[in-house]
Amino acid sequence: MEKNLQRRAVLAAMAGTTVGIAASTPAGANATPATPERLKGYTYPLSPRGVANLAGKPQWHYVGDAVGVEFWTSPEAAAASLPTGLDPDPANPGHGYAVFIDWQFNGATDDYLDPPFSQYSEFLVLLDAQWQGTPVAWCPFIWVDNDASLARGWVQGFPKKMGSIRQTRAFAIDSPAAPTVGKGGRFAAVMSAGGRRLAETTVTLDRTTDRLPALTRPLVNLRHFPRLSAGQHDNPAVHELTMSVLANLKFANTWIGTGELRFLPAPREELADLTPRRVGVGFRGSLSYTVNDLRIL
């Protein structure tokens, strides 16, 4: 009798109804399964050996070269991009940064020796905002070209999408094929997605600086995972502001100068809603940090 009731309950649940037992309620964010999961892994897909998941457990180490431009969009457009809990920064409304980064990643097993896994490129927008009066940076849009990076980003709350990102490279040898990382050096970067170019920049270096201008504020994201259950579509399983914890953040060979920046419109994209009204400094430099923690706001 009990087995038949359980079988009917499973079939009914698949059909969106309940038979013979009370409907279950969604588990809380910190609920622990009554029976430990036999499959292993940190992110999807869980598997017998736990090596097939897109992103393994932290620590996550990053190093990369960044090219970017400071810009101002309309204060109204910047404010419209903010989630509940963040407010516009009255000190500099509409101010932000567009950043292209050529990354190399490492977990705990010398992942940099597997270049297809550990290397990827990224484009993101950071806007000035405030959280309870504290100046922060908000990331409304970000694109990457590596699915492992996509998975790590979703865990942190970055709203990552897949795209194609390229930037001018520099090398430790003089050549007409590469710019100088120094006064007068010129770098460009572009991002496209769905076959359409969405962002492009050009930067001309002028003088050194001690850090990249875009990473002077705590970075806030929104972790969001919806429910598919009928009647629960507007009640996400996870919806929380997070603050990134970047351990051992370092910069090297950082330069600032002038820059140009364009956001291009495309169907099903809203990046161009933040079209720059004017631009400030352009910059180029290297950075590294480690991720092993996250602050829930």
Number of β-strand runs: 15
Q: Please summarize the sheet with the most strands.
A: 15 strands, mixed
Percent of residues in helices comes to 10-25%
- Straight-line N-to-C gap: 48 Å
Q: Could you say which structural class the secondary elements and strand pairing correspond to?
A: mainly beta
Topology:
Layout: H1 2-14, E1 60-72, H2 75-80, E2 87-88, E3 95-106, H3 115-118, E4 119-131, E5 134-138, E6 142-144, H4 147-156, E7 160-162, E8 164-167, E9 186-193, E10 196-208, E11 219-225, E12 238-244, E13 247-263, E14 278-291, E15 294-296
Parallel strand pairs: 5-11, 6-7
Antiparallel strand pairs: 1-3, 1-14, 2-4, 3-4, 4-5, 4-6, 8-9, 9-10, 10-13, 11-12, 12-15, 13-14
Descriptors:
mainly beta, about 300 residues, 15-stranded mixed sheet
Report on the structure:
This protein is mainly beta and 297 residues long. The chain is 11% helix and 42% strand. The chain has four helices and 15 strands. It has a 15-stranded mixed sheet that branches. Strand 6 (142-144), helix 4 (147-156) and strand 7 form a beta-alpha-beta unit. The protein is globular, with a radius of gyration of 22 Å. It starts with a helix and ends with a strand.
Give a short synopsis of this structure.
This protein is mostly beta strands and 297 residues long. It is built from 4 helices and 15 strands.
